[in-house]
Every structure is written in structure tokens, then in C-alpha cells.
Design a protein that fits this description.
alpha+beta, 4 helices, about 220 residues, eight-stranded antiparallel β-sheet
Length: about 220
């Protein structure tokens, strides 16, 4: 019976991981493809599973339709445009004024990090997670790092492409979408890794996709 369950779950995860990315890669516009995929699966209560991740759930696509759990509260001021927070022309005073709670002393090489909780809103395309600003000894932001979730990554993908020239890079893992950017000299300027969450819950619409984003200061 255990082997049978394993085969069934593996078949479900593999089928979802193949069908979802196939629709994404075959669409002419990556942003529209992500939006259409999320909209189509949202009505069914599920999204493609991540077949390559480390999953802690025993059952795939666990959806609790009857829950009334509220959305995450806004952290700091509402964000109508991602450019309000994903920016390099700020100071430590600006961070302290915008967020009531800031974690400091997060060193990375010669950079000093200031981490804040970020919940941009309650729409499916909003972000929820932690954003870290890394300052140089000259007190200039050199790097931005965001780890969090979203219900629909299309808005983030469009923003990164428009403002930071991110482009899609195919990878061997069918459950991961990777975007990268380089500067005019061909140097690394940023990367974004987006993967569908293993467990999808109707009462957690902002946690359908896992997001890892890094931005380097434009040259």
C-alpha cells in the first residue's frame, strides 16, 4: 500500500510539474502565460506542484476551502508600485521611517543589511515576505534581497523586465522559472527564482508561489 501511494503521488506531482511549465514556455508572452495559468488553476483550487522541492506535506494540493483565515496584515505602508520599495536611492533613515520593525546587523561580505517585513497588499499579485537592503560602508544601497511568496508572479515579472531588464532563462528543472539581468558591461545585475508551492490553500492566496529575488545596484 505504501508503494502504491508513492507511485500515485509521484504521478500526480510529475503530471502537474510537466503540464504547468509546458503551458508557460509555449506561450509567446511569459507574463500573460503566468497570469492565465494562475487564473485557470485558481478556479479549481490548485496549482502545479513543484516536483523538485523538499516537500513536507503528505498529500499534494491540500486546499482548505472552508477556512476563514485572514490575509497577512500589511507591514509598513501599502505599496501600489513595486518601484517604491525595490529601489537603491534610499537611506537607513528612510527605512526606519517606513517600517516600524527593522532587523539590523545582517552582514554580507563588506555590506551591512537592514531587513524589513514586506506585505505589499492583499491582491493575488502582491508580495509577502522579507526584504533586505544591503548598504556599503559609504552608506549606499548596493544590493536588494527578497525572499517571500505571491499568488500571481506576473506583476513582479513585468516590473523586473520593465525596470531592470530581466529576461527569462530556461533551466532543466520544470518546476522553476528563472529570470536574470546583466548590465551594459555584461556583469551580473540580478536574478529571480519563482517556483510553485507544494501545498496550495484557498485561505492563503499570497503563498501559491515561492520567490527568491536579488538585485544589484545598476551601474
Amino acid at each position: 500500500m505504501t508503494m502504491f501511494k508513492t507511485l500515485v503521488y509521484s504521478g500526480i506531482g510529475l503530471g502537474a510539474a510537466v503540464v504547468g511549465p509546458y503551458l508557460f514556455f509555449t506561450a509567446p508572452d511569459h507574463v500573460n502565460a503566468v497570469r492565465q495559468s494562475v487564473a485557470g488553476n485558481r478556479s479549481a483550487g490548485v496549482l502545479p506542484a513543484d516536483a523538485a522541492g523538499d516537500h513536507s506535506a503528505d498529500a499534494p494540493f491540500a486546499v482548505d476551502e472552508g477556512s476563514t483565515k485572514p490575509l497577512p496584515p500589511l507591514a509598513g505602508r501599502p505599496v501600489s508600485d513595486f518601484g517604491e520599495v525595490f529601489r537603491f536611492d534610499i537611506s537607513t533613515c528612510w527605512i526606519a521611517e517606513r517600517w516600524p520593525h527593522v532587523s539590523t546587523g545582517l552582514a554580507q561580505l563588506q555590506l551591512n543589511g537592514y531587513r524589513v517585513p514586506l506585505v505589499t497588499g492583499t491582491d493575488q499579485t502582491d508580495l509577502a515576505g522579507a526584504l533586505t537592503y544591503y548598504f556599503s560602508p559609504r552608506q549606499r544601497v548596493e544590493r536588494l534581497v527578497f525572499h517571500g511568496t505571491t499568488g500571481d508572479p506576473s506583476r513582479l515579472v513585468a516590473f523586473l523586465g520593465r525596470h531592470y531588464r530581466f529576461v527569462h532563462r530556461p533551466v532543466n528543472d520544470p518546476g522553476v522559472f528563472v529570470y536574470e539581468a546583466v548590465d551594459r558591461n555584461g556583469n551580473f545585475a540580478g536574478s529571480a527564482e519563482i517556483r510553485s508551492s507544494w501545498t496550495v490553500r484557498a485561505d492563503e492566496p499570497l503563498r501559491r508561489f515561492q520567490v527568491k529575488l536579488q538585485l544589484e545596484r545598476p551601474t
